[in-house]
Description:
alpha/beta; 7-stranded mixed β-sheet; 6-stranded mixed β-sheet; 26% helix; 30% strand
Amino acid sequence: MTTRATAKTAKAAKAADRHRTPATPRHYAVVGAGIAGVACARTLVQAGHKVTVFEREATPGGRMASVDTAFGRFDSGAQYFTVRDPRFALALEATPNLCRPWSANLVRVLDAHGRVAEAALPGRESHWVAQPGMDALVGHWAAPLGGSLVPNTQVTQIEPDALDAKRWQLRTAGEGDSQHVYSGFDGVLLAVPPSRTRVLLGDGKISASVSQKIEPVRIAPCWTLMIAFPQANQPTMSHLGPQWNAARSTHHRVAWLARESSKPGRERVERWTLQASAAWSQEHLRDDAARVQAKLLRAFAEITGIHAAPTHAQARCWTEAQTQVPVGKSHLWDAKARIGVAGDWCTGHRVEDAFLSGLSLALAAA
Length: 366
């Protein structure tokens, strides 16, 4: 991932470090430990500030989540990432051997009947995956945060600090219905989906300017199905079905298919992940998982020709998955209120978008 641009960026960063005047240390609350939140928190720590990161799940990752099963791991969210910006490339170069290129040349474009419409996606851009799952990258970057990361904790409300009206305090809900108040924050930085961001901003009471700018944002849901065929792993059978490892589809139910077992550093048990189309996911948003699973399995058979029943099948719904209408800028920062927002949905839906959003918000706040 080394480029001439990354070398120039590294030199500029070192020069800036030599001449930077240390800022007055502040304490920031970062809500959300996906890639945007972790990138934001780490950048603030590197600038000499204190952070406390709140994550409602047990581990960091966000939509770079991976699911462990008896048959191997599935990337239930982001399937891969690309590298275009030198700042992202530079950060990845500091994590050697964690990420490897995936066979992008095997990505196909299929028609509604599963026939190959294009041999490969346009362009020669490399597709990268983390090992042993996509969440490994976020976990690696979050590790230095140590005790500053508070897992299994959902922030329910932002309000002025009871002892210092110039600061903020957060009300949280944790395991076993436990509740807690964390106080003394000089700023609050939100790296969660738009619906949650709107709730925490209290319909504009916390920051009217930020609330107004995120109101137009729209993100489509996505149903995901993860299936395993351990019966395919026989000496005379390397895999089931088609010869490609990933495909975009125009089938009305399925937009993306990936052979998880083809990704580098993964278990060899034949596994597939399907991501439903935005329109179909929206139409079936409130369906139960069993019904969705049955419908997507039928679509999988139609597209791939694999009619065998999987040994393992698991459906998951991401209620906010792919940005339809973004904010239109890398981040939002209300300097007066010291409230900020970051996320891939600020500019798009790519992993790199999330990283750059968290980075830019931290630089604005610092």
